[in-house]
Amino acid sequence: MISEPLPKSILPGSPPDNAPRVRLLARFVPILTLTAICWLLFVINNLLLSGRWTAYGIVPRHLDSLMGILWAPFLHTSFRHLAANTVPLLVLGGIICARSRTQFAVVTLAGIILGGSLTWVFARTAYHVGASGLIFCYFGYLASLAWFDRRVVTVLISLVCLVAYGGMIRGILPTSVPISWEGHLAGLLSGIAMAWLNSKLSKSSKEKFTTQPQVPTSADVWR
């Protein structure tokens, strides 16, 4: 019989080990930060600058608005506009963060740059601002995962997103002049494209693993 000292985390009267909880919460820092930036810019732009920054959104096919591709997702024209975007941004972005913060970063950049570029090229002439294009990117990515990667987890994620936010699809139809349906459609296509790309890279990684077993791999490339 031997004796070993108890780990500090299970000694009587010792504080609990919060490291796993901290790591879990840390996964959601990116989406919380992104949402906080949207609210901060809204306060500055709408309450202090009378909405002057809205002019820095996307104006399709105007060269001087190319930088608007980067700024547009963070600008909102009204409290109602931002409030309507906040919950789906947190929920859908949070799901991607829970999968991987790297995955969240890649999909977010695609939604901003690819979705914004498509809006700049194809949308009607107007100021296109708001995080809804990014939300549609998240939705397109999560909803199409099951098609490209048919595992139980991805199927469940896609089903949950479709059930909870499937009504968003109506947002890609030109039903209301003030709504940037072009931005919604561009975001949706960007998200689907990223799901397809992740699937292709993942399959390539698995094939490489079969020929070189010593090289580690994972179900998702963006970890």
Describe the structure.
- 61% of the residues lie in helices and 0% in strands.
- The N and C termini lie far apart (43 Å).
- The protein has one domain: Rhomboid-like fold (Up-down Bundle).
- About 2% of the residues have low confidence.
- It is globular.
- The protein has 223 residues and is an all-alpha fold.
- Helix 4 packs across helix 5, helix 4 runs parallel beside helix 6 and helix 6 packs parallel to helix 8.
Blueprint of the fold:
Layout: H1 19-26, H2 29-48, H3 68-71, H4 79-99, H5 101-122, H6 132-148, H7 152-165, H8 181-211
Helix pairs in contact: 2-4, 4-5, 4-6, 5-6, 5-8, 6-7, 6-8
- Per CATH, the architecture is Up-down Bundle
Cα(first) to Cα(last) distance is 43 Å
What low-confidence regions span 5 or more consecutive residues with pLDDT below 50? 215-219
At the fold tier of CATH, the topology name is Rhomboid-like fold
- Amount of beta strand: under 5%
Rg value: 21 Å
Output the keywords.
223 residues; 61% helix
Q: Can you give me a brief rundown of this structure?
A:
With about 220 residues, the protein is mostly helical. About 60% of the residues lie in helices and about 0% in strands.
